[in-house]
Amino acid sequence: MLKLSLASQLIHFGAALLLLTAFAMLTQRRVLSLVNLFAWQGLILSVSTAVVAYSSVQHHLYVSAALSLLLKVILLPLILRRLLKRLNVRWDNETLLSVPTTMLVGIVLVVFAFSLAQPIAELSTSIARSTLGIALAVVMLSFLMMITRRKAVSQVIGFLAMENGLFFAATSATYGMPMVVELGVALDVLVGTLILGVFFFQIREQFDSLDLQHLEQLKED
Amino acid sequence: MNALNFALAISETVMAIALAPLLLGLVDQCRAWLQNRRGAGLLQPYRTLRKLLKKDAVVAQTASPLFRASPYVQFGAMALATAIIPIFGTHSLLATSADTIALVGLFAIARVFTALAAMDIGTAFGTLGARREMMIGFLSEPALLMVFFTASLITQSTLLPNIVITMTSHELVIYPSLAFAAFAFVMVLLAENARIPIDNPSTHLELTMIHEAMVLEYSARHLALIEWATALKLLNFAAIGLALFLPWGLSAPGDGGLAIAASLLIALAKLALFCAVLALIETMSAKLRIFRAPEFLGTAFLLAVLGLLVHQLLGS
Amino acid sequence: MSLTPLSIILALVLAWFAVGLLGLIAPRNVAWVGRTLFPLGAAMGLAMAVAAVLAIFGATETRILAIGLPDLPMHLRLDALSAFFLALIGVTTTGISLFAAGYFRGGDGTAPGLMGLQYHVFLASMAMVVLADDAFAFMVAWETMALSSYFLVTTQHRVPEVQSAGFLYLLLAHIGAISLLLCFGVLQGGSWQFTFDAMRAADLAPAWASVAFGLALFGFGAKAGLLPLHVWLPEAHPAAPSPVSALMSGVMLKTAIYGMVRVSFDLLPHTQWRWGVVVMVVGGLTGLFGAVFAAVQSDMKRLLAYSSIENIGLIFSGLGLALLFRGMGMGTLSALALAATLYHCLNHAQFKSLLFLVTGSVMHATGERSLGKLGGLLRHMPWVAGMALIGTLAMAGLPPLNGFVSEWLLLQSYLLTPSLPHTLINMLAPLGVAVFALTTALASYVLVKFFGVIFLGQSREPTAPPARDAGLLERAGLIWLAATSVLLGLLPVLVLRALDRVNLELIGSSLGERAATWWSVMPLSSERASYSPLALGIGILVCVALTFLLVRRLYHGRIRLCTPWGCGYPQWTPRMQDTAEGFGQPIRRVFEPFFEVQRQTPTAFDSAPKYRVVVTDRWWGLIYAPIIRLVQMLSRWVSFLQQGNISLYLLYSFATLLTLLAFVL
Amino acid sequence: MALWCLLLIPFLGALVLGLFGARRLAPEFNVAFSFSTFVTSLVLTAQVIREGSFLVGREQFFVDPFNVFLVALTAFVGWTTSMFSRPYMRIEEHHGRVNRARLRLYHSMYQLFSFTMLLALLTNNLGILWVAMEAATLTTVLLVSLYRTAASIEAAWKYFILCGVGIAQALFGTILLYFAAEKVLGAEGSTALLWTHLNAIKGQLEPTVLTLAFVFLLVGYGTKVGLAPLHNWLPDAHAEGPTPISAVLSGLLLNVALYAVVRCKVLVEGATQSGLASHLMMGFGLLSVLLAAFFLLRQKDIKRLFGYSSIEHMGIITFAFGMGGPVANFAALLHMTVHSLTKSAIFFTVGHACQKAGTQVMDDIRGLLLVSPTVGWGLLLGTLAILGMPPFGVFTSEFLVITTAMRDQPWATPILLLALAVAFGAIFHRVQSMVFGATDLKPLPHPPALLPVFVHLGLVLMLGIYIPPTLANWYRLAAAMIG
């Protein structure tokens, strides 16, 4: 087996942490903790991006790292915390599946994601190539989280976490997307979050709660 | 030759028309004899006709021209049929212009006009009669057609003279299919001519009558024409039956005077025999309830179809 | 562009469009639309008939229009078959348009001008159906025809029944069209050229040819009203205004026959005799079914609609016979059967249109469609009644009118089946002819009922104001159709000569010049069978006239008018006449298993006794209701997918993603 | 130049209307901007027809017959919809469903939406394509929730979440695509996401990666196209948003999303040569057609009904693109055109019909022909057209699709036809009872703008019987490009 460089060890470590946070988010019921976890995830992402940038001498990745630091560690958690305070949301009291079941499903998903990413990772020249599976796993876990959550806010956090996974995939599989794309994506995410924020208020105004069970009126009967 | 043929055909038709009421009288007389009655005599139908032709006609105020025209149409159609059917010879003028199918059509014309005229006044009995007549008609008409077709399949022709000629030209062969057809034909004949067991021409029992119900409103000359047409119809059916099932003895065009005279006598004898048999059948059967009539005719129809099938199965 | 029949006909089609569009100038102006445009349309119909008759005896013409698909511009072709049907369209619509000119008035339905547009588009599309020479052009014309007639059917759309009738009609028409599309897809046979020429050249395997044939039978059968696809017909015909019913029943159904003939004789060159058996059986059953149902109807237009089903059945059974003969390689016999079939198409177009127009006049005069409320109209509407009588007699198949000629020819063809070298068919043929005969006999029952209940007797609603006879234009239309019915009956030679051209083109053999003379018809040999309508007609006239004169000479009594006798019953009202239900009662009893009857009979103690009987079609419950239930059940299952729960929706996406990934892995 | 203007005009429009959108004349301005967009698109089209495909802006923008055709269509329908929306939104204001501030948002977002769609169509960069698609989602989310009713918020939420998640998958797919391309093209100059470059080297791309990428892209953009079973947002969003938005969603956005799928399909099929992408598209297409047909039977809300109908037609188009080949692609492009025109025309009439009746529940709408013949006839003819009745153009394209399917995928034909028959019954039954019958509805406070309806239907009718050679050639070029 090849001896891994320090950078690549660091990245692997970051990836593992990322997966850990994803799992933690899957099990976490407190919404505020979810936001914190999201911020941590952002931080890990930003650091590992910076490591990749350093080791591969891809300067534009520094910008990406900075961007994600700004957006995902500072701005978005800030907005979310504010929202939570204003909306007075604490608990995501019920999930659709029990936590152990969710975990089990999550593990299956991780295995699936890894096996899926394996042939691709082989082709990668990036130093972070084996982390592609982890990125895919994070995306899938976030997807699972969105499915199992009943609160609008946690669903949105799931959505943002999925975005993190994608971002990680972009840096790990390749050395990041072209700058203009990254900027666009970041803008979209920011605007999206803002719009969702507006939505929270509208939902609360209409239904007096952020429970998604109120949003089940439009259906076939 | 042609002129002779022409004269012969015309005289045959005129004679048949003139003799038709006699046929009716003969049947009634035979029936009376069979029932141990004295009977009114052979000429009773002529007396009835003369009586009717003398009277003033009474027509309902609500009658339309159709009502008055109908007896003429009935009589005309029947007379035309007589002209087509070989009575004692196959020299009919119109034979090639109307085959058996057209003959059935002619009978249908008479029937339709009778029924329409019956509905014209708008009495309960008239419409009742019309309905029942059409009920008989819709089954007897195809049955008659099937009978004709059985004969046509054997002889490869739908023209009555040709059927007769083909049948008589070769030696006697027993066609099983014709037996079925003959049975069916007798049943159709009984129904079409308002005989027992379908109808009773001699009563006006309101609930059972068919033909009489239709002519209730007629009187005098109209009634006379209708009665005469009825007699003609019986003659026509008798002649058809005889031509199909006992075709021997009919004269062909071009026969000499002796042959014609012989054929005339044979035809008269056959008709007399027919009357006797008809009277016998009528005496021996009881009238059916009106709703048994479709069953009766349905049987006739099926028999005729069986005749066709048998022909197809056994070949000729 | 030279003045060939095809260009004349195309110009007339365009002119019909133009006439229709002109109606939009003043849609509510009855004088403009009715008195000007419709007669103009009628004149064009006549012109089309003339051009088409010329074309029958001319050479086949083809043309490619500059419209249509980029790779498949619209192909047109005018051959003897299409010319014959164009003539049919032209002749019939002349009468109908004349009548319609007097018939359409302002009212609460569609504006006359708009209706004029729909009407003339309908006419034009029917002509285009017959002219089309590729699948696309055919489908466009075919569906345009369905669509324009749908709009005409739903003119009185405020009536709920009209809506459902229209819907059912269009739905079945569409399903039929889908089947036709599939049929063309099979017919092209691997060339992927959708012109009819390519289809003629395609060499289909016998199994595929059968599939194509089956699809065509389904598609055209849905339009023609074959069992069990007939359900729309008795609904749509009564719903439509009478000229439209006349057009649909008289002309549009014939385009389905045209299609059937085109596909089975022209596009499928190798006929299999089994097709003939299928068509014959289906046709025979349809005919019987239609006749039986017509006999028990109490709505005059429904009665006629069922009678159309009956006639379509007869036509199809004749078509089956023609296919059978052709499949067995008996050209002349096939030619006879085909000629008889097409002749009956033409005849049916005349008398059925005539009778539908008559119902229109009756409805205008009385506002009633139910036979139970009519009666005695002969006295008030002598013209209409007279023409109706001709139509009735023609349709009842009485000599010497036209219905008889074609039925005679059909029966003659049936009588030739013993020459077929196949036992099964030899057994089937007698049954076929029996059903045929029974059907035609029932038809006269139906028509006695139709004419008798409407025009004879006394008005069953004595309070109704006396009806007025039809107007001049309406009368002209009726007379035209009655005249064609009589002429076609008396001079079959006109038609048979034309049909021989069609035979030559489609089958390759013909009946020959000798088959029909001015005097008489002898389809095969003079020994076998002959029929002379002129002689028979003159014979009847002479006999009746002689009788009349003789009786006049012999008879010396006078005529007295008095009240009807009626067996001397003292209490007598017009309501004691047979109703339509009563008249149909024997049939209802004889053919009990055909119907689903709901009866409400009064008991002896009812203070207000009421008798009601409703006869419905079993086919609906047997076929359509289960299909509807199945579709609804499926849609209920499908709708479980959409529960409104966003988690569930996300799960679908997720599951889809995972499945696909697992699939490609 | 025309291209820049094309992007600039709606963007400027969004800004201007964002500032002044509450003014009385804002709807007229909206029309004016849309119209200038349309004119510019015509100029661009003329340029493409004259000069062929070209690249602009350091290869970031690309115009070829395929997208310029969609650009013209988008600009045209955008313009006619703005004409329709002018009286429609006035009436909505009159009915008190929206206020001036919302109208400002509406007009501004309308232009921004046009901008994002045009951007998505014109860009050569698959990343930008993704960004534009996401942006289109964001703008329309705001439009769908314009009325701020419970139902509209619910619809918008579902729309946002489902499409957001979906499109995130598309991003993953794009990353994989980039990953594969970068190995061939290198990361320098960031050409690895440019479609033209990718298309040039598609044979060298790694098949496994592209297969995976296509799954993600299909699921992602497919959500936006409304392919079953990813379609669940679509009926809700169509039913609850303002009708002009339903019209552009159905008529344009779905097309644009499908455009993205097709662009990706071209690359993937070029790389894998396995037909997998084609089969996936056909499968999704058929499933959508079939499911939508059965969904249609149970609808009560008229806009939902036509939402499902859009799913059905997108299914047909996807199926046709899946089959590929010159005829099927031609048919798919034609179907895109006629579907956009017809469906938006239907929504125009539906909008006014609902305003008259004050409800979207079909059972409560009756007698449109009587109360307003133009609306009634528009709806009736539009419905018949969308159901594939000749002589309308939808029939033409369906004819081509079905005949091609008979040749290439005979197994699919019965399914397709069954679905079409069911859909016909379901939709027509409903529409007929709305159009026909007696009614007591009242006229509207502002005269409705029905010119667009009849212009659209007229065009569809023309395409049904005559496709101008220029247009046909144009379609052929585009079809050949798609392969």
Break the fold down into its secondary structure elements and pairings.
The complex is a heterotetramer of chains A (221), B (316), C (665) and D (483).
Chain A: H1 6-27, H2 31-56, H3 59-87, H4 99-123, H5 132-148, H6 152-173, H7 179-207
Helix pairs in contact in A: 1-2, 1-5, 2-3, 2-6, 3-7, 4-5, 5-6, 6-7
Chain B: H1 2-34, H2 44-54, E1 57-60, H3 65-84, H4 100-121, H5 124-155, H6 160-169, H7 176-192, H8 211-214, H9 220-245, H10 257-284, H11 293-314
Helix pairs in contact in B: 1-9, 1-10, 2-9, 3-4, 3-9, 4-5, 5-6, 5-7, 5-11, 7-9, 7-11
Chain C: H1 5-22, H2 30-56, E1 61-68, E2 73-78, H3 80-103, H4 112-131, H5 135-153, H6 160-187, H7 196-201, H8 206-224, H9 233-239, H10 242-267, H11 273-295, H12 300-327, H13 331-366, H14 382-395, H15 402-414, H16 423-455, H17 472-490, H18 492-506, H19 533-554, E3 559-562, H20 580-590, E4 595-600, E5 612-617, H21 618-639, H22 646-664
Antiparallel strand pairs in C: 1-2, 4-5
Helix pairs in contact in C: 1-2, 1-4, 2-3, 2-4, 3-4, 3-10, 3-13, 3-17, 4-5, 4-10, 5-6, 5-10, 6-8, 6-9, 8-10, 9-10, 9-12, 10-12, 10-13, 11-12, 11-16, 12-13, 12-16, 13-14, 13-15, 13-17, 13-18, 14-16, 14-17, 15-17
What can you tell me about this protein's structure?
The complex is a heterotetramer of chains A (221), B (316), C (665) and D (483). The two termini of chain B are 35 Å apart. Chain B has one domain (2-314). Helices cover 71% and strands 1% of the residues of chain B. Chain B is built from 11 helices and 1 strand; from the N terminus they run H-H-E-H-H-H-H-H-H-H-H-H. Chain B has 316 residues and is mainly alpha-helical. Chain B has helices at 2-34, 44-54, 65-84, 100-121, 124-155, 160-169, 176-192, 211-214, 220-245, 257-284, 293-314; one strand spanning 57-60. Chain C has 22 helices and 5 strands. With 665 residues, chain C is mainly alpha-helical. In chain C, helix 12 runs antiparallel to helix 13 (331-366). Chain D starts with a helix and ends with a helix. Chain D contains 19 helices and 2 strands. Chains B and C meet through strand 1, helix 3, helix 4, helix 5 and helix 9 of B and helix 15, helix 16, helix 19, strand 3 and helix 20 of C.
